[in-house]
Amino acid sequence: MKIEAIEYGDRSVYTVSAFNRGVADWISRLPSLWVEGEVTELRRQDRWQSVFLTLKDPADGACLAVTMPRGQFDALRLDLADGERIHVFGRPQLYEARGDFRFRALTIERFGLGDHLAALERLKRKLADEGLFAPDRKRALPRFPRRIGLVTGNDAAAKRDVLTAITARFPPARILVAETYVQGPRAASAIAEALREICDAPEIDVVVLARGGGSFEDLLPFSDERLIRAIADCPVPIVSAVGHEQDVPLSDLVADARASTPTAAARLVVPDLAELNARLERSRAALARGTRSALDRERRRLDLARDHLRRAPLLMLERRRAALEQTAGRLRALSPRATLERGYAIVRAAGEIVRTSSQVAAGARLDVELGKGGLGARVEETR
User: Fold this and answer.
1) 251 dihedral zone (left: phi>0; alpha: psi -120 to 50; beta)
2) Domain count, the chain
3) Does residue 322 form part of some domain?
4) What's the whole-number mean pLDDT along residues 291-308?
5) pLDDT value at residue 10
6) pLDDT tens digit string along 17-72?
7) The pLDDT value given to residue 383
């Protein structure tokens, strides 16, 4: 379609549509070429037809918006991350309706780690060698902190998310907020200073370092060596809640605990009051059941003891009676009377028991005792 101007006297004027169409037509005649830069702001969603990223020149910060069809991007299987340096082959393109200039990528090749990423890798290895990321340095978070410190940006959504989540989970929580820069060249030193000040505040038991998501460059202050060492030197446990799940600044590695989001950080530093109340109610009910059970056991024991005490005298009498009867039986068995009852007799002469025939003479009077009754006798002869 021919692009024509509207004539206003001696002035030729183009409509926005005509201007954009003309520029787009001119740009479309430019050749395909390779462009080098660092990946930033990579955005890919399954429901999107295209993948978007920004190429940044690390030398001066110049940026170029890049788009690529999602199918072609996924087929490359590059698994790119912010900070990596790449070569992109494609051609410039202007979207006429919005005047949006982009570089339409035809293919992408990984060139190597970007300057920032390479520097971060060197710093990461250095700090790891010093033991700053060692698991044995991690401190346990307090179960019931007296006071919680929150270091975050002013008017930041992360601050609102943390405060809302903490007060929703545990309304009695006391929170001290320190607002500071969380982006830009002054952020690292400002955050480190805010950490030192909030740790010096009375009764601070744990500190949350929070920032919402952002580009690779936005989160660079949280990988600054000054801030990492300040976190390592903090006298109280630190929870790092910086960026999103896929973001892993060095503050996450040195902190005592890492939260994938500011909201998740709230779940780490305070218990759920509703859950605590439910647990207390269950414990109270268990104690009541245990008390009732103990009382029932003691009542049964006392009842048994009472019955035992009531029966004890009777049992003792029975045992004593049995013992007496046994003794009486033995005595009866040993009694001379029992011998007499078996057919024997006791013979006395002059009041003494006659044991031998030499004790009496013929004609002597005898007194004979039988098992039942007795009789008198006279000796006729002795043998």
Assistant:
1) alpha
2) 4
3) no
4) 88
5) 86
6) 889 888 988 898 899 999 999 999 999 998 999 999 999 988 888 999 999 999 99
7) 79
Q: Which neighbouring-strand residues pair with 53?
A: 66
- Residue 319 inside a domain? The answer is no
Question: What whole-number distance in Å separates Cα of residue 94 and Cα of residue 102?
Answer: 6
Tens of pLDDT, residue by residue over 146-174, are 999 999 987 668 888 899 999 999 999 99
Helix (H), strand (E) at residue 361: none
- Same structural domain, 122 and 255: yes
Residues 266 and 142 in one domain: yes
Residue in this structure with the two tokens 């698991």, named with its chain if needed: 135
Give the pLDDT confidence score for residue 112 in this predicted structure: 59
Q: Are 281 and 164 within one domain?
A: no
Read off the tokens for 34.
């390779």
Average pLDDT, the chain: 87
Select from 112, 129, 159 the last residue of a domain. Answer: 112
Q: Which two tokens stand for residue 355?
A: 């044991």
* Residues across the chain: 383
Assess whether 232 and 353 both reside in one domain. no
pLDDT the model gives residue 250: 92
> Does residue 101 share a domain with residue 161?
no
Measured in degrees and rounded to the nearest 5, phi and psi for residue 204 equal -75, 120
**88: buried, middle or exposed (CB in 10 Å: 19+, 13-18, 0-12)?**
buried
Name residue 109's beta-bridge partners: 87
CB 94 within 8 A of CB 100: yes
Give 3-state DSSP helix, strand, coil % of the chain, rounded to 5.
40, 25, 30
Q: Is the pLDDT of residue 113 over 60?
A: no
Q: In what order do the strands lie in the sheet with 175-180?
A: 175-180, 147-153, 204-211, 238-242, 257-258
Residues 220, 359 share a domain: no
Q: What residues make up the domain containing 241?
A: 117-270
Instruction: Please tell me whether residues 53 and 142 are part of one structural domain.
Output: no
What is the number of alpha carbons within 13 Å of residue 118 lying toward its C-beta?
A: 8
Question: Which pair of tokens denotes residue 110?
Answer: 């990984």
154 by DSSP, 3-state: which? coil
